[in-house]
Amino acid sequence: EAGVVQSPRYKIIEKKQPVAFWCNPISGHNTLYWYLQNLGQGPELLIRYENEEAVDDSQLPKDRFSAERLKGVDSTLKIQPAELGDSAVYLCASSLGGTSGGVHEQFFGPGTRLTVL
Amino acid sequence: GDSVTQMEGPVTLSEEAFLTINCTYTATGYPSLFWYVQYPGEGLQLLLKATKADDKGSNKGFEATYRKETTSFHLEKGSVQVSDSAVYFCALISNTGNQFYFGTGTSLTVIP
Asked: What is residue A89's predicted lDDT score, i.e. its pLDDT?
Protein backbone atom coordinates (compact mmCIF):
# COMPACT_ATOMS: atom_id res chain seq x y z
CA GLU A 1 0.00 0.00 0.00
CA ALA A 2 1.36 3.41 -0.95
CA GLY A 3 2.02 5.81 1.88
CA VAL A 4 1.45 9.54 2.03
CA VAL A 5 3.15 11.18 -0.93
CA GLN A 6 4.52 14.69 -0.84
CA SER A 7 6.23 16.80 -3.45
CA PRO A 8 8.58 18.38 -3.89
CA ARG A 9 10.97 16.91 -1.32
CA TYR A 10 13.12 20.02 -1.33
CA LYS A 11 12.48 23.59 -2.39
CA ILE A 12 14.75 26.60 -2.34
CA ILE A 13 13.28 30.01 -3.09
CA GLU A 14 14.05 33.64 -2.50
CA LYS A 15 12.03 35.63 -0.01
CA LYS A 16 8.85 37.22 -1.28
CA GLN A 17 8.40 34.43 -3.84
CA PRO A 18 5.37 32.13 -3.75
CA VAL A 19 5.69 28.40 -3.12
CA ALA A 20 3.29 25.47 -3.10
CA PHE A 21 3.45 22.00 -1.63
CA TRP A 22 1.38 19.03 -2.69
CA CYS A 23 0.17 16.06 -0.69
CA ASN A 24 -1.56 12.84 -1.73
CA PRO A 25 -2.91 11.00 1.33
CA ILE A 26 -3.41 7.29 1.75
CA SER A 27 -6.42 6.09 -0.18
CA GLY A 28 -9.55 6.09 1.96
CA HIS A 29 -8.19 8.42 4.62
CA ASN A 30 -10.73 11.16 5.25
CA THR A 31 -8.59 13.30 7.51
CA LEU A 32 -5.60 15.21 6.23
CA TYR A 33 -3.18 17.32 8.25
CA TRP A 34 -0.51 19.84 7.40
CA TYR A 35 2.22 20.34 9.99
CA LEU A 36 5.17 22.68 10.29
CA GLN A 37 8.36 21.24 11.76
CA ASN A 38 11.16 23.58 12.70
CA LEU A 39 14.66 22.23 13.24
CA GLY A 40 14.91 20.48 16.59
CA GLN A 41 11.19 20.76 17.26
CA GLY A 42 8.16 18.57 17.05
CA PRO A 43 5.51 19.01 14.37
CA GLU A 44 2.99 21.80 14.92
CA LEU A 45 -0.42 21.60 13.32
CA LEU A 46 -1.23 24.17 10.65
CA ILE A 47 -4.54 22.86 9.37
CA ARG A 48 -6.72 19.78 9.54
CA TYR A 49 -9.25 18.66 6.95
CA GLU A 50 -12.14 16.29 7.31
CA ASN A 51 -12.83 15.38 3.70
CA GLU A 52 -12.83 18.74 1.89
CA GLU A 53 -13.70 20.83 4.94
CA ALA A 54 -11.04 22.63 6.96
CA VAL A 55 -12.18 21.88 10.51
CA ASP A 56 -9.20 23.36 12.35
CA ASP A 57 -7.14 26.15 10.78
CA SER A 58 -6.62 28.18 13.92
CA GLN A 59 -2.81 27.90 13.67
CA LEU A 60 -2.57 28.76 9.98
CA PRO A 61 -1.14 32.27 9.37
CA LYS A 62 -3.85 33.33 6.99
CA ASP A 63 -2.18 36.49 5.81
CA ARG A 64 0.31 34.48 3.76
CA PHE A 65 -0.66 30.81 4.02
CA SER A 66 -3.53 29.12 2.27
CA ALA A 67 -4.56 25.54 1.74
CA GLU A 68 -7.13 23.64 -0.20
CA ARG A 69 -8.32 20.07 -0.50
CA LEU A 70 -10.48 19.85 -3.56
CA LYS A 71 -12.63 16.73 -3.85
CA GLY A 72 -11.46 15.65 -0.42
CA VAL A 73 -8.35 13.83 -1.64
CA ASP A 74 -5.16 15.68 -2.61
CA SER A 75 -4.22 18.89 -0.88
CA THR A 76 -1.98 21.84 -1.57
CA LEU A 77 -0.45 24.26 0.88
CA LYS A 78 0.67 27.62 -0.43
CA ILE A 79 2.78 30.42 0.96
CA GLN A 80 2.66 33.81 -0.71
CA PRO A 81 4.90 35.64 -0.19
CA ALA A 82 7.47 33.51 1.60
CA GLU A 83 9.57 34.97 4.39
CA LEU A 84 12.93 33.91 5.77
CA GLY A 85 11.26 32.52 8.89
CA ASP A 86 9.21 30.11 6.81
CA SER A 87 12.24 27.90 6.28
CA ALA A 88 11.22 24.56 7.80
CA VAL A 89 9.94 21.11 6.93
CA TYR A 90 6.27 20.93 5.97
CA LEU A 91 4.73 17.58 6.80
CA CYS A 92 1.51 16.11 5.53
CA ALA A 93 -0.27 13.33 7.38
CA SER A 94 -3.50 11.43 6.93
CA SER A 95 -5.70 9.21 9.01
CA LEU A 96 -9.02 7.43 8.82
CA GLY A 97 -10.29 10.20 11.08
CA GLY A 98 -13.88 11.22 11.20
CA THR A 99 -15.92 12.50 14.09
CA SER A 100 -17.51 9.24 15.06
CA GLY A 101 -14.99 8.64 17.76
CA GLY A 102 -12.02 6.36 18.20
CA VAL A 103 -8.35 7.15 17.94
CA HIS A 104 -6.81 6.82 14.53
CA GLU A 105 -3.12 6.59 13.79
CA GLN A 106 -1.69 9.35 11.66
CA PHE A 107 0.53 8.34 8.76
CA PHE A 108 3.13 10.90 7.76
CA GLY A 109 4.70 11.74 4.45
CA PRO A 110 8.45 12.40 4.13
CA GLY A 111 7.94 16.16 4.18
CA THR A 112 9.03 19.06 2.03
CA ARG A 113 12.11 20.90 3.23
CA LEU A 114 11.73 24.58 2.37
CA THR A 115 14.67 26.97 2.38
CA VAL A 116 13.94 30.66 1.94
CA LEU A 117 16.97 32.77 1.02
CA GLY B 1 -4.12 23.28 27.15
CA ASP B 2 -2.83 19.85 26.31
CA SER B 3 0.93 19.43 26.03
CA VAL B 4 3.77 16.94 26.05
CA THR B 5 7.17 17.38 27.65
CA GLN B 6 9.94 15.02 26.78
CA MET B 7 13.52 14.58 27.78
CA GLU B 8 15.92 16.78 25.92
CA GLY B 9 18.69 15.26 23.89
CA PRO B 10 20.81 14.45 22.25
CA VAL B 11 21.32 11.03 23.75
CA THR B 12 24.35 8.94 22.81
CA LEU B 13 24.56 5.29 23.84
CA SER B 14 26.77 2.35 23.10
CA GLU B 15 25.25 -0.62 21.34
CA GLU B 16 23.38 -2.98 23.70
CA ALA B 17 22.92 -0.26 26.34
CA PHE B 18 19.60 0.32 28.07
CA LEU B 19 17.51 3.22 26.80
CA THR B 20 15.01 5.40 28.61
CA ILE B 21 13.48 8.53 27.12
CA ASN B 22 11.19 10.33 29.53
CA CYS B 23 7.84 11.77 28.52
CA THR B 24 5.21 13.46 30.66
CA TYR B 25 1.96 14.99 29.57
CA THR B 26 -0.72 17.47 30.55
CA ALA B 27 -4.22 16.84 29.31
CA THR B 28 -7.83 17.04 30.29
CA GLY B 29 -9.71 13.81 30.27
CA TYR B 30 -8.07 10.61 29.13
CA PRO B 31 -5.74 11.09 26.19
CA SER B 32 -4.18 8.43 24.02
CA LEU B 33 -0.39 8.41 23.99
CA PHE B 34 2.06 7.65 21.22
CA TRP B 35 5.72 7.35 20.41
CA TYR B 36 6.74 8.22 16.87
CA VAL B 37 10.20 7.70 15.37
CA GLN B 38 11.81 9.73 12.60
CA TYR B 39 14.77 8.24 10.78
CA PRO B 40 17.05 10.61 8.86
CA GLY B 41 15.39 11.94 5.74
CA GLU B 42 12.11 10.17 6.42
CA GLY B 43 8.68 11.04 7.79
CA LEU B 44 7.46 10.16 11.25
CA GLN B 45 6.45 6.55 11.81
CA LEU B 46 4.30 5.25 14.62
CA LEU B 47 6.43 3.18 16.99
CA LEU B 48 3.87 2.28 19.64
CA LYS B 49 0.77 3.56 21.35
CA ALA B 50 -1.41 3.15 24.44
CA THR B 51 -5.01 4.28 24.64
CA LYS B 52 -5.84 3.88 28.32
CA ALA B 53 -4.23 3.89 31.74
CA ASP B 54 -1.91 0.97 32.53
CA ASP B 55 -1.78 -0.11 28.89
CA LYS B 56 1.67 -1.06 27.65
CA GLY B 57 2.56 -0.38 24.05
CA SER B 58 5.39 -2.38 22.53
CA ASN B 59 7.10 -2.76 19.17
CA LYS B 60 10.57 -3.69 17.90
CA GLY B 61 11.81 -4.21 21.46
CA PHE B 62 10.60 -0.79 22.61
CA GLU B 63 8.04 -0.47 25.39
CA ALA B 64 6.12 2.30 27.11
CA THR B 65 3.48 2.11 29.84
CA TYR B 66 0.66 4.64 30.22
CA ARG B 67 0.93 5.83 33.85
CA LYS B 68 -1.99 8.05 34.74
CA GLU B 69 -0.85 8.58 38.33
CA THR B 70 2.43 10.13 37.17
CA THR B 71 1.09 11.39 33.79
CA SER B 72 4.00 9.69 32.09
CA PHE B 73 4.71 7.50 29.07
CA HIS B 74 8.44 6.78 29.20
CA LEU B 75 10.02 4.91 26.30
CA GLU B 76 12.38 2.03 27.12
CA LYS B 77 14.44 -0.54 25.30
CA GLY B 78 16.63 -3.11 26.95
CA SER B 79 19.36 -3.30 24.31
CA VAL B 80 19.69 -0.63 21.64
CA GLN B 81 21.17 -1.19 18.20
CA VAL B 82 22.92 1.16 15.79
CA SER B 83 19.81 1.01 13.62
CA ASP B 84 17.78 2.62 16.43
CA SER B 85 19.56 5.91 15.84
CA ALA B 86 16.76 8.37 15.09
CA VAL B 87 14.66 11.13 16.63
CA TYR B 88 11.87 9.98 18.93
CA PHE B 89 8.72 12.01 19.51
CA CYS B 90 6.20 11.55 22.29
CA ALA B 91 2.68 12.65 21.38
CA LEU B 92 -0.85 12.68 22.69
CA ILE B 93 -4.30 13.03 21.29
CA SER B 94 -7.13 14.04 23.54
CA ASN B 95 -10.27 12.01 23.67
CA THR B 96 -12.25 15.07 22.58
CA GLY B 97 -10.62 15.69 19.23
CA ASN B 98 -8.23 14.59 16.54
CA GLN B 99 -5.42 17.01 17.19
CA PHE B 100 -2.02 15.61 18.04
CA TYR B 101 0.34 17.40 20.41
CA PHE B 102 3.98 16.48 19.91
CA GLY B 103 6.96 16.82 22.18
CA THR B 104 10.11 18.48 20.89
CA GLY B 105 11.79 15.19 20.04
CA THR B 106 14.82 13.40 21.47
CA SER B 107 17.70 12.56 19.18
CA LEU B 108 19.29 9.17 19.85
CA THR B 109 22.64 8.09 18.46
CA VAL B 110 23.83 4.55 19.07
CA ILE B 111 27.51 3.91 18.52
CA PRO B 112 29.03 0.48 17.83
From this structure: 95
